[in-house]
Design brief:
By secondary structure, this protein is an alpha+beta fold. The protein has one domain: GAF domain (Beta-Lactamase, 2-Layer Sandwich), CATH 3.30.450.40. Helices cover 31% and strands 24% of the residues. It is built from 4 helices and 6 strands. The chain has a 6-stranded antiparallel beta sheet with strand order 3-2-1-6-5-4, with helices on both faces. α1 runs parallel beside α4. The model has no long low-confidence stretch (mean pLDDT 89).
Length: 169
C-alpha cells in the first residue's frame, strides 16, 4: 500500500519534532487546511481515572488535545459518543449521520457526520483518537477513513509519547 500524500506530509512534520504536543498540533492543522468541508479536526487524549491508587478508580476518559475549529467538549467518557466508542472498541468509527448514532455527544450542534480513528502506543494500547467532523451528512467515505488511518499509522510510528503523562493525579 502506498502512503497517502497527507501521511507523507504528516511524516515530514513529525520528523521535524516528534514530541506529542507539537506533532499532534501540526497534524491537526495539516488536516484542517487540507480537507474540504470539515468543521472540526483534533485529538482527544486518554487519561486514566481520577486515582490510580484506588482499585475502584473510574474508567479512563478522553481529554481535549490539539485541534482546529470551534470550541469543543473538553472531556468524553470512555465508551460514550463516537470518540469514546472508537477508543473503547479500538475501531475506526465512520458515521454518516451523527444524529442516528446512539449516545452521540453534540459538542457542535451543526455537526452531521464524523470519522474517528484510534491512536496506539508502541505496545498497542489506545492512547488517543483523531476526530474529524463535518456539517454535511455522509461527508466521509471509506476511502477517507483509510487515508486517515494511514496518517494515524504514520503518527504512531514516529510520535514520542515519553513526555505524555496519561494519568490524572
Amino acid at each position: 500500500m502506498t502512503q497517502s500524500l497527507l501521511a507523507k506530509q504528516a511524516y515530514e512534520l513529525i520528523q521535524a519534532d516528534s514530541s506529542w504536543l507539537p506533532a499532534l498540533s501540526n497534524v491537526a492543522a495539516l488536516l484542517w487546511e487540507s480537507m474540504d468541508n470539515v468543521s472540526w479536526v483534533g485529538f482527544y487524549l486518554k487519561q486514566n481515572g481520577t486515582s490510580t491508587s484506588m482499585p475502584s478508580s473510574p474508567a479512563p476518559e478522553l481529554v481535549l488535545g490539539p485541534f482546529q475549529g470551534k470550541i469543543a467538549c473538553t472531556r468524553i467518557a470512555w465508551g460514550k459518543g463516537v470518540c469514546g466508542t472508537s477508543a473503547a472498541t479500538n475501531t475506526t468509527q465512520l458515521v454518516s449521520d451523527v444524529h442516528a448514532f446512539p449516545g452521540h455527544i453534540a459538542c457542535d450542534s451543526a455537526s452531521n457526520s464524523e470519522v474517528v480513528i484510534p491512536l496506539h502506543t508502541a505496545s498497542g494500547s489506545v492512547i488517543a483518537v483523531l476526530d474529524i467532523d463535518s456539517t454535511s451528512l455522509s461527508r466521509f467515505s471509506v476511502q477517507d477513513a483509510a487515508m486517515l488511518e494511514d496518517v494515524v499509522a504514520t503518527i504512531e510510528k514516529l510520535i514520542d509519547w515519553t513526555a505524555f503523562e496519561p494519568q490524572i493525579d
